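tool_call: predict_structure(chain=1)
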Amino acid sequence: MSDHVHDENCNHDHDHEEHVFLVTDEEGTEREMVMVFTFESEEQVYSVLLDRNDPEADGVIFRIEEEDGEAFLVGIEDDAEWERVTAIYEEIAKRENEGE
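tool_result:
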């Protein structure tokens, strides 16, 4: 996976395939989430997902892990890891907003 952001500002030719995941929140509500970009930190890959039906809501960060050739999303429970990746996410979001 790369840290290339695939959005409307992407300036090269390729199809933008929407990666949709069903994510169950703390209340047990299933939501359709769309992967908007990925990034790496300390040899781990992370993904930011947005609610497909509420794109103005804050993004949710998951760690991507692979097992037997299949990738899956894992919630981040370690406080230090969470603080590190949210700082990276906030920096990416800040740069994206400055670019507009």
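agent: The radius of gyration is 14 Å. Proceeding to next step.
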